[in-house]
Amino acid sequence: MASFSSPQRGGELILAASYGRPVTAYDSLSGYVVAEFPAANTPRHGLAVVTPGAAFVAASHVCPVTGVGSVRLLHWWSQAPTRSLPVPEPVAPLVASPHGSHLLAGGVSGRVHALELPSGDVACSFRAHDGVAVSCLALNDDGSLLVSGGDDGVVAVFLLLRVLDVDADTTGSTDLSLYRLPAHAAPVTCVACGHGGCNAVVATASMDGTCKVWTLTDGSHLLTITLPCTAFSLTLDSPTARLFAGSFDGWVHVASLNSLDTDTAKSSWYAGGNTSAALVGVGMANGCKNLVSCTEDGEVGVWDLASGLLVNTFRTNTAVTDVLVVKRSAGNVARARGGAEGFRVRDGEAWRKAGEVARMEQALRASEVDKTSSVELVEMALGGYKRFLHLMLREVTTVASGRRRNGVNGDGDISD
């Protein structure tokens, strides 16, 4: 079951997964833990949110003893028990269909398995990559196209309705893709789709140290960006046509998609906090006004893109293998189903002020604890002083009583 604390107001939620640790939801304004789900061995890109209707958090899981793979279906804003959905093989990347009817999981064999929800039955399995693992999955913004990246450096694009309509027994080795791109010379690490449906762009990153931008319609190459190291996460800012890459060295690298004549990032800033930990996730929040970054050692930062300033930061309870920003739509579902308060959109200044208020509240609570401790210490001291006076009074009384019994008066004279 999930354990819950009081949800905070405003902003998106940040879901963080760790290997062998609970999946935890944090309030992006305060960093408070909103929900904590049972532990799972979740790899990179192994989190997905299933909405609307059911409102589940899905997490890939591989048993450390048997090596058997499964998908854990965690109830959002509910105390219902966790369900474990069996899969034909260990899976890592997950993505949910737009209407919550299916969950797509990428396997180590190169196949993608479509699980019906809420039953968990395997509706179909189809080949995405030849004999190598599926490393990342993404859907475009209208949910019509599925993009798959693999350890072979290939990017494959599928029509979602087509692959979901195929009988699981007849797919075999049939290639259901619309097209395939020999995109990179090394494994693909992440995929991100922009806005615009089928006319959007798609960005891919690889262990070859490059990010590439393609047209989603036909896979035409638009831009190659060379990075100083591997990017593990990507996100696109559609209003300003920028690409943000979270890299292994803890830096966020930014490139303009309008400048197709460059092969290097336009700007960079360090988001790794006080360590050199890799960035395992970047994502947009607050209508693309804020960028959320998260390192593998649990440093979460919320950045105002207009000013480039850090408006909030906090640390998770443990190391992080995958992170997901839960958008406002998921919050509305949570409110409708569980009575939890929804999330309001805030600009960067409001985020900063809310963060300051949260820190002031925390400092106030700490001062109240210190005050209580001080009062307890004073009360203990007073109690000890009272006991000391009582002992002195008893000793004086005892001595005085003994003198009277021996015939000595209060002035020291011996009575007649």
The CATH architecture can be given as: 7 Propeller
Mean pLDDT score: 81
Specify the biggest β-sheet: 4 strands, antiparallel
- The top-level CATH class is Mainly Beta
Distance between the first and last residues' Cα? 88 Å
Count every beta strand, where a strand is a DSSP E run of 2 or more residues: 28
**The CATH homologous superfamily:** YVTN repeat-like/Quinoprotein amine dehydrogenase
In percent, how helical is the residue content? Answer: 10-25%
Helix/strand class = alpha+beta
GO cellular component, one term: rixosome complex
Keywords: WD repeat
Please describe what this structure looks like.
The protein has 416 residues and is α+β, with helices and mostly antiparallel strands. It has one domain: YVTN repeat-like/Quinoprotein amine dehydrogenase (Methylamine Dehydrogenase, Chain H, 7 Propeller), CATH 2.130.10. It contains three helices and 28 strands. It has helices spanning 160-165, 328-338, 348-405, and strands at residues 3-4, 13-27, 33-41, 47-50, 56-62, 69-75, 83-86, 91-96, 102-107, 111-116, 122-127, 134-139, 145-150, 155-159, 179-181, 188-193, 201-206, 210-215, 221-226, 231-237, 242-247, 251-256, 267-270, 279-285, 290-295, 299-304, 309-315, 322-326. The strands form seven sheets. The chain has a four-stranded antiparallel beta sheet with strand order 1-3-2-28. A hairpin with a 4-residue loop joins strand 24 (279-285) and strand 25 (290-295). It is elongated. WD repeats lie at residues 181-224. InterPro entries: WD40_rpt, WDR18/Ipi3/RID3.
